[in-house]
Amino acid sequence: MQASAVVERFRDTPHWDYAQSLLDEERPEGLLEAEFSGALERLRDKMRGERWDSLVAKMETQGLNAAEKAEYQGLMAERLSR
User: Fold this and answer.
1) Please, are residues 16 and 46 in contact by the beta-carbon 8 Å criterion?
2) What does the alpha-carbon distance between residue 6 and residue 66 come to, in Å, rounded to a whole number?
3) Is the CB of residue 23 less than 8 Å from the CB of residue 3?
4) Residues 41, 49: Cα–Cα separation, whole Å
5) Are 19 and 10 in contact (CB under 8 A)?
6) Each residue's pLDDT tens digit in the chain (82 positions)?
7) Sequence-separated (6 or more) residues with CB below 8 Å from residue 73
8) CA 82/CA 78 separation, integer angstroms
9) Residue 49 and residue 37: Cα distance in Å, rounded?
10) What's the pLDDT score for residue 76?
C-alpha cells in the first residue's frame, strides 16, 4: 500500500494534519512505508495480546465455545512459534 493511500484514510479525522505532515517530510525512499508497516504490526500484536487475555479470562470463568477454542489454539500456536 502506498503511503499516500494510508495517509488518505485519515482524511476528515482529527489526525489528518499530522498524517499529511508525514508525507511532507523529507525521508529516504520506503521509510514512511516501513514506519506505517511497523506501527500496524505493533497494533496487530497488541490486539492479539488483548484477545488472548480475553479468551484466557473467559476460559477460566465460563469456558469457551468451539470457535473460541479454535481461536485460542491458533493464538497459542503463534505464541509458541515466536
Assistant:
1) no
2) 36
3) yes
4) 12
5) yes
6) 577 777 788 888 888 888 878 777 666 767 778 888 888 889 999 999 999 999 999 999 999 999 999 999 999 999 898 8
7) none
8) 7
9) 18
10) 93
